[in-house]
Design a protein that fits this description.
By secondary structure, the chain is of the alpha+beta class. The protein folds into 3 domains: about 240 residues, no CATH class; about 90 residues, Alpha-Beta Plaits (2-Layer Sandwich); about 60 residues, mk0293 like domain (Ubiquitin-like (UB roll), Roll). Helix content is about 35%, strand content about 35%. The protein has 11 helices and 21 strands. A 7-stranded mixed beta sheet has the order 2-3-12-13-1-6-11. The protein has a 6-stranded antiparallel beta sheet with strand order 15-16-14-17-20-21. It is globular and about 65 Å long.
């Protein structure tokens, strides 16, 4: 399984540093630069410089992003413009997730609603360019198909000036984003980890660890920051293959709520919507509640970064007044991938998806994607069980 480890325990992380490290590890500097310039164009003029440098005789990469743009755009407006950029699907999804992490943190700090939130520094053209550049580089390196780990995050001390005036370090938004994540204070009177860097970490990283993971390292990248520090101002990315038993240890959160005043149809619809919105799994168990009322216990497995958003979906759809969150749970999972197969049924050609499970690269099993099989069954008139069997047979021939 492909594995990347981000070491930000010495000098923290910013958007430009992480982008530079990924370029240094092998992402195309030209393609990343083009993506950054194209992304920034709707927001303001930007200059992007990518160069190779040395820090204490270590070869590294530096990304300089310069703009006179000061931001001052609403969060919905930024999201709308990003969607019009026509980025690759995985890149767009990750960019929007990162912006969502930033916006929710700023909204909590300033006690404002998302639809009315105005983003200044983190909504400026250079910040958008950093986010798009980093996600483009990660996609180029295939990191979305593997697992990304990170070290504890170094943060500085003191104070610095923002659009709203002088604020303590770490910046309030940075702390909000890193809530629940491991941080490490460094005796440097400078901002080490920026809100943009923290948001990218929280979005990209599957889990934070205290030591380097068991892995075979194939590529190493160093990204240099702009500030001068007593220690090397570097973030390091190591990429390669995980070593171990082939099982991924995933950090998850569990959402729970009890309802006794909604129908089974509403519960079923809620589960479907939660899964469509990104829940890892969802189920409902019949229970007997107070005063002998029948009800449901709804359980939802989510990524920790999605817990608040999906809790809101759960409350909106069921009307429940509260959702329990059991954070920082873990589960072991096999490596998974989605492949398409070519199949001909009832004289028509289809390309259904199949979920494939592996352990250490060895095939363990596969299953036809239900929605694809359902659509084929409806269009051909064949029984669903027959369609799923034929799709899985096609997958077996293709994958073996």
């Amino acid at each position: 399984m492909k594995l990347a480890f981000i070491d930000c325990s010495i000098a923290g992380v910013s958007g430009d540093m992480l982008t530079a490290a990924l370029i240094d590890a092998g992402a195309s500097a030209q393609r990343v630069k083009r993506a950054m310039l194209a992304a920034a164009k709707p927001f303001g003029s930007v200059e992007v410089g990518i160069k190779r440098v040395k820090v204490n005789e270590i070869k590294a990469t530096r990304v300089d992003v310069k703009t006179s743009d000061k931001g001052g755009r609403t969060y919905p407006k930024i999201v709308g413009r990003v969607k019009r950029l026509r980025l690759p699907l995985k890149v767009e999804r990750t960019v929007l997730e990162t912006l969502g992490v930033l916006a929710r943190a700023e909204a909590r700090v300033h006690r404002k609603r998302l639809e009315r939130l105005v983003l200044h520094e983190v909504g400026a053209a250079d910040a958008i360019a950093d986010i798009v550049g980093c996600c483009t580089a990660a996609n180029e390196l295939g990191l979305f198909e593997g697992e990304i780990l990170a070290s504890e995050v170094a943060v500085g001390k003191g104070a610095t000036k923002f659009i709203h005036g002088e604020l303590p370090l770490p910046a309030p938004a940075t702390l909000e984003i890193l809530r629940g994540k491991p941080i490490r204070g460094v005796a440097a009177n400078v901002e080490l980890t920026t809100p943009t860097g923290a948001a990218l970490l929280v979005t990209l990283v599957n889990r934070f660890v205290n030591v380097y993971p068991a892995m075979r390292i194939d590529a190493i990248g160093y990204g240099v920051g702009a500030r001068k520090l007593p220690s090397p101002n570097l973030v390091r990315v190591c990429m390669g293959e995980a070593r171990g038993h082939g099982l991924k240890l995933q950090e998850i959160a569990l959402l729970e709520t009890n309802v006794d005043d909604v129908s089974g149809e509403v519960v079923g619809y809620t589960i479907e919507k939660l899964l469509a919105e990104g829940a890892l799994d969802a189920s409902a168990v019949p229970v007997l509640m107070k005063k002998g009322r029948p009800g449901f216990l709804i359980k939802v497995l989510v990524k920790p970064k999605d817990a608040e958003r999906l809790a809101h979906v759960l409350m909106s759809e069921t009307g429940t007044l509260g959702v329990r969150v059991l954070p920082t749970m873990h589960r072991y999972a096999l490596e998974r991938e989605i492949v398409q197969v070519d199949i001909k049924l009832a004289g028509r050609k289809f390309k259904p998806r199949v979920k494939v499970a592996r352990e250490r690269g060895n095939l363990v099993g596969f299953a036809a994607e239900y929605e694809d099989a359902k659509e084929i069954a409806e269009r051909t008139g064949l029984p669903l069980r027959e369609v799923m069997r034929r799709v899985e047979e096609a997958a077996r021939r293709k994958i073996r």
